[in-house]
């Protein structure tokens, strides 16, 4: 059986629809048994007992009504199944989104993005046939044959037992089969998800591939992945065919044995003609649900593998542990709800903070002790991999420190309600992704009730009015995937406008490493300088000029804090900062 434990929790999302689908399946069997039973009685009365036609007619009416009822029940069953899959898929999608939000960008960074997308997209779709066809039919194929075999045993024990043995032969052969099928369905999904991830990476990285002249290599890899998927498809098809053949042989043998036993019973006088007829006609109904289950095998095969991939995301250990005492912070400048930050911004303190990324051997941060005063701008500098991003990710609470605490206005951020905490941080990073299809959509994420005048005001303060003016429909111009229609400098200014609009008093600035043209550079720098006013700012600096404009600089190396001080003091001290500048490894 292609069942995994999590599948039970999926159908629990729509218990009534699941029960309705199963009930409809069982009712179809009942309708068919009624039809065949009435026909057997009609044949017995008309041909064997030679009763008048009037005595046969009601039985034919019952048989016809049962046939019509079967049609109606099938329609109702299909409606229940559609409802079941809509509810389950909707809920699984919602749970996946919630899980991905909880797992956070830190977890996503360690994953292959294309695989996660394949699971969230096609994986969820693959569940459709699994939950709405395979799982309900599995229940029907358990309930209906059991009841019919018991009835058969009551009617004629030898024939009933023979049908029962044939019906259980199939499931009995399953344990070994299930393992084989389980392995193959996993391998099939692996092949599919790898190909899907590779295709998405190739599309996303097309400019780099062309630049490196590596499109040929990537094509060869994709051809190899396609071949592997084809092999897995073939082996899945072979298993499916073998399963169907085995089922058909078991059913055929069972039918022959029951028919022979009914014939022998009739000849020996053990049973009458009516019982023999009922047995011969009814035996097909014992096996029909089992054969229908086999016909949903493919849906089960794909759905089981997808369910396992979904399970991996839903069951992944969460990087954050929400403490029972998590609370909404009071009086600490939580989202001001306007366009201006609370005066001065909050104080930030890293207290003996150590952190190692999950799965990483080396610590990213070791014993960091760092205070940032309200309204201060602190620049973080250090070689690539020194731990600058990790430090700001801990402030944003992508992760909790392994040791130590991060405090905002004296309050451990682990005890603050996560959404409140994140609402008071604005991030302007070098790879800004514009969400939503237009600039307006993106801005409104920060403040859904903002009116046009407010939007124009923040765009003005972000030196972004000329960006909007250059677009055919202004802030309502479609921007393409992640704002691809805008240049890097334009996207940064939109991000600055968003930060103004959010009113968040804590600012994380990840300075762009790529150079902008002179005018854009000046516009971005001016907008950033305005944005920093009245906010506490943590700045990942890549340029001497930027770091020099901060109130203080903190130098990180291999996860340790080497020195902190004003730019002038550090430059004069001839310490690590001076070394890094001299070696030109910090600043591009
Ligand atoms: N998601 C992750 N999983 C495992 N290790 C990680 C992860 N993110 C960062 N690291 C490791 O943690 C260390 C610090 O990385 P971090 O990104 O904080 O450095 P950085 O100073 O910001 O570097 P850069 O300037 O290149 O962005 C590095 O050794 C890095 O390899």
UniProtKB/TrEMBL annotation:
One of its GO terms (molecular function) is ATP hydrolysis activity. It is found in: Cell membrane. The chain crosses the membrane at residues 12-43, 138-155, 161-177, 237-265. GO terms for cellular component: plasma membrane. Keywords: ATP-binding, Cell membrane, Membrane, Nucleotide-binding, Transmembrane, Transmembrane helix, Transport. Its main location: membrane. InterPro entries: AAA+_ATPase (IPR003593), ABC1_TM_dom (IPR011527), ABC1_TM_sf (IPR036640), ABC_transporter-like_ATP-bd (IPR003439), ABC_transporter-like_CS (IPR017871), P-loop_NTPase (IPR027417), Type_1_exporter (IPR039421). It is a multi-pass membrane protein. It holds the Pfam family ABC_tran. The keyword Cell membrane applies. The keyword Nucleotide-binding applies. Residues 19-299 form the ABC transmembrane type-1 domain. PANTHER family: ATP-BINDING CASSETTE SUB-FAMILY B, HAEMOLYSIN SECRETION ATP-BINDING PROTEIN. Belongs to the ABC transporter superfamily. Lipid exporter (TC 3.A.1.106) family. This is Putative ABC transporter permease/ATP-binding protein.
């Amino acid at each position: 059986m292609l069942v995994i434990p999590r599948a039970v929790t999926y159908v629990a999302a729509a218990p009534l629809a699941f029960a309705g689908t199963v009930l409809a399946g069982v009712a179809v069997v009942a309708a068919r048994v009624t039809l065949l039973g009435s026909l057997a009685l009609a044949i017995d009365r008309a041909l064997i007992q030679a009763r008048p036609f009037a005595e046969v007619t009601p039985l034919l009416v019952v048989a016809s009504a049962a046939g019509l009822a079967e049609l109606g029940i099938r329609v109702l069953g299909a409606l229940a199944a559609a409802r079941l899959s809509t509810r389950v898929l909707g809920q699984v999608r919602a749970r996946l989104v919630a899980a991905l939000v909880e797992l956070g960008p830190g977890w996503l960074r360690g994953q292959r993005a294309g695989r996660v997308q394949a699971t969230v997209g096609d994986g969820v779709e693959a569940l459709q046939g699994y939950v709405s066809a395979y799982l309900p039919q599995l229940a029907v194929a358990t309930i209906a044959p059991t009841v019919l075999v018991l009835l058969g045993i009551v009617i004629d024990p030898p024939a009933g037992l023979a049908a029962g043995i044939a019906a259980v032969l199939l499931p009995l052969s399953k344990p070994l089969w299930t393992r084989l099928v389980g392995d193959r369905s996993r391998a099939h999904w692996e092949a599919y998800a790898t190909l899907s991830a590779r295709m998405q990476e190739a599309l996303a990285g097309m400019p780099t591939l062309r630049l490196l002249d590596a499109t040929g290599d990537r094509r060869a890899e994709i051809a190899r992945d396609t071949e592997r998927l084809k092999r897995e498809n073939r082996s899945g098809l072979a298993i499916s065919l073998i399963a169907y053949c085995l089922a058909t042989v078991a059913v055929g043998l069972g039918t022959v044995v029951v028919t022979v036993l009914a014939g022998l019973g009739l000849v020996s006088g053990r049973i009458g003609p009516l019982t023999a007829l009922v047995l011969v006609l009814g035996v097909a109904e014992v096996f029909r649900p089992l054969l229908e289950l086999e016909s949903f095998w493919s849906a089960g095969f794909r759905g089981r593998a997808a369910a396992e991939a979904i399970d991996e995301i839903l069951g992944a250990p969460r990087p954050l542990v929400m403490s029972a005492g998590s609370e909404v912070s009071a009086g600490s400048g939580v989202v001001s709800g306007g366009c201006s930050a609370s005066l001065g911004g909050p104080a930030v303190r890293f207290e003996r903070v150590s952190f190692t990324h999950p799965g990483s051997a080396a610590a990213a941060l070791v014993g960091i002790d760092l205070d940032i005063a309200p309204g201060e701008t602190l620049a973080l500098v250090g070689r690539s991999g020194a731990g600058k991003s990790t430090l700001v990710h801990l402030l944003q609470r992508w992760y909790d420190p392994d040791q130590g605490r991060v405090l905002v206005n004296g309050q451990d951020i682990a005890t603050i309600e996560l959404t409140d905490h994140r609402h008071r941080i604005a991030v302007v990073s070098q790879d800004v992704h514009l969400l939503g299809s237009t600039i307006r959509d993106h801005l409104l994420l920060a403040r859904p009730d903002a009116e046009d005048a407010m939007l124009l005001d923040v765009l003005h303060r972000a030196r972004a009015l000329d960006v909007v003016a250059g677009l055919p429909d202004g802030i309502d111009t479609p921007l393409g995937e992640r704002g691809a229609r805008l240049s890097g400098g334009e996207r940064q200014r939109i991000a600055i406008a968003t930060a103004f609009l959010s009113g968040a008093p804590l600012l994380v600035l990840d300075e762009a490493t790529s150079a902008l043209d002179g005018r854009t550079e000046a516009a971005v720098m001016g907008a950033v300088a305005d944005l920093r006013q009245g906010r506490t700012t943590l700045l990942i600096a890549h340029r001497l000029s930027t770091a020099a404009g901060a109130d203080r600089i903190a130098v990180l190396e291999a996860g340790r804090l080497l020195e902190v001080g004003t730019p002038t003091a550090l430059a004069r001290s001839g310490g690590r900062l001076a070394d890094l500048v001299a070696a030109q490894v910090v600043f591009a």
